[in-house]
Design brief:
The chain is an alpha+beta fold. It has twelve helices and seven strands.
């Protein structure tokens, strides 16, 4: 016992605990020297620091063993890296990739552009080299990462507490500690649903990317035929310009001979100038279309492209071959199949949200030692009480999203069928217009032959002959435009029903296989 106002300095192990007694009552005051108590506690155990460092070492080693092995690898955005990515692969590499292309609709081909680029070769080349598709394919990596994350379980949690007796009657007391190891088993309940959500989402993204690849392929085929149509128009425009130039010379000579007037010469020169302007315009459009084709193919603007010489425009499409594809749109169109996978993913998300309403459950094992050096061990469990939050908001949100996806799918199927039906009507109309245009061309060709024979025999007017030839050339250009519209409508129909080519798909339609 200490007397009143008597100070007793008791140094324990070194220098930092003072006891002070007032009014015959024992009081203790812990003096902290520069907060050393919080960071450098001394205990009765002379090997405390050695044991603590060993425990810290083993815990760090255990965490390192069970942690991932991923390491950081920088990838800098440099000009060299960009140019390397934009470089056109060699022809051999393109042939290998074209022969091993993996797509639910597009098929591998033998790529050989030595005789010129065909529409099918352009389609596959666009799928392989278009930079925009590279960006879309990166979404697959994100989906794979989400699927991996969905299957992971939370780590167990380990806690360790150490307490020191710092005041009162501390003689004979020891340091107390407590350890706890627990694991949240709530994630086990919804794990299968989370994995199903991510798996369906990955399938959806694969189909969306495949749908965009099919769109790019059809766009490349369409661009090839549009370029062919423009080149054919340019050829006719060039012939017309040459003939009208000859017509101007003949009319000018007739004016000098007094056979025609200057008004006739002015009309001939105006027609010639108009032909020149039309030729320049179609030549410019052909150059722009060539750049568009290069862009779709992922080729630089200075890359030389040569098309095959035997590419012809269709002048008739059998409607009976197209009608069976309309009934199977929802089993073929990749975007509709992607919506199906998205709905499947949302269905699993609703189930996961319902499963998540179960309370949090953390079972574990506890071990502790009190200040009296008594040990105790036993199980423990932490349960969340679902009083206020039972995941009602997320359940309602996922349910509303599921309904929206269902309605979106129904609307997309309806719109696809209407689009295909409209295109059938357009193709039927173009077939008829092309037939009428071909008949008109035949009439003008016979008339032109009659005028030419009369001109050779000297009883036909040269102006009438050239005017008839101009009308015939314009009719031929109109026929080319109609054929181009027919080809565009065909590609649009193939895309609307989810196929690549009419000839490559059997009439007995089967659903697209999902990989």
């Amino acid at each position: 016992m200490l007397n009143k106002k008597q100070e007793v300095l008791k140094i324990r192990e070194s220098r930092w605990i003072f006891l002070y007694n007032r009014d015959t009552k024992m009081e203790s005051l812990t003096v902290l020297q520069g907060y050393k108590k919080f960071f450098f506690p001394f205990t009765r155990h002379k090997n405390f620091w050695l044991k603590g460092m060993k425990m810290l070492f083993w815990l760090s080693l255990l965490s390192a063993v069970f942690s991932g092995c991923a390491s950081y690898h920088p990838r800098y955005l440099t000009s060299e890296a960009v140019e390397e990515k934009l470089a056109v692969p060699s022809i051999n590499d393109i042939r290998i990739m074209a022969g091993s292309i993996d797509h639910p609709v597009l098929k591998p081909i033998d790529f050989d552009d030595r005789d010129g680029l065909s529409p099918d070769e352009a389609a596959v080349l666009a799928v392989l080299l278009d930079p925009s598709l590279t960006v879309e394919r990166d979404r697959r990596l994100l989906a794979e990462a989400q699927l991996l994350q969905a299957g992971l379980l939370p780590n167990p949690q380990f806690s360790y507490n150490l307490n020191f007796p710092t005041g009162g009657a501390i003689e004979g007391l020891v340091n107390s500690f407590a350890t706890n190891l627990n694991w949240n088993i709530e994630s086990l309940i919804s794990r299968s649903s989370r994995v199903e959500v991510a798996s369906a989402k990955q399938a959806e993204i694969d189909l969306v990317v495949a749908w965009m690849e099919l769109q790019v392929a059809q766009g490349a085929r369409m661009a090839v035929y549009q370029l062919v149509a423009l080149n054919k128009q340019a050829q006719i425009r060039k012939e017309m310009e040459q003939l009208l130039s000859e017509n101007v010379n003949l009319v000018r000579q007739a004016v000098q001979n007094g056979l025609l007037t200057k008004l006739d010469l002015a009309a001939a020169e105006a027609a010639y100038n108009q032909a020149q302007v039309a030729l320049l315009q179609v030549t410019q459009e052909s150059g722009q279309q060539l750049l568009t084709l290069k862009q779709l193919l992922g080729l630089p603007s200075d890359y030389e492209i040569k098309l095959q010489n035997n590419i012809e425009l269709m002048d008739n499409i059998d409607i009976s071959l197209l009608e069976p594809f309309v009934a199977s749109i929802d089993t073929r169109r990749l975007d509709l199949l992607a919506l199906r996978q998205g709905y499947k993913s949302e269905e699993a998300a609703v189930r996961a949200a319902i499963l998540t309403q179960f309370p949090m459950i953390n079972p574990g094992v506890n071990q502790a030692r009190d200040f009296g050096s008594f040990y105790n061990t036993g199980p423990g469990i932490t349960i969340g009480l679902p009083i206020f939050n039972r995941n009602q908001g997320m359940i309602a949100f996922e349910g509303a999203t599921r309904k929206q996806l269902f309605d979106q799918y129904v609307n997309s199927v309806f719109a696809a069928r209407i689009t295909a039906a409209k295109l059938l009507k357009v193709i039927l109309s173009l077939n008829h217009r092309i037939t009428v245009s071909k008949e008109a061309i035949q009439v003008l060709e016979k008339l032109l032959l009659t005028y030419r024979q009369g001109l050779e025999q000297g009883y036909s007017d040269v102006v009438i002959y050239y005017n008839t030839w101009g009308s015939l050339a314009q009719k031929r250009i109109d026929l080319i435009l109609l054929k181009q519209q027919l080809m565009d409508s065909r590609f649009a129909f193939e895309l609307a029903v989810g196929i690549y080519s009419i000839e490559s798909v059997p009439l007995v339609t089967e659903p697209v296989s999902l990989k």
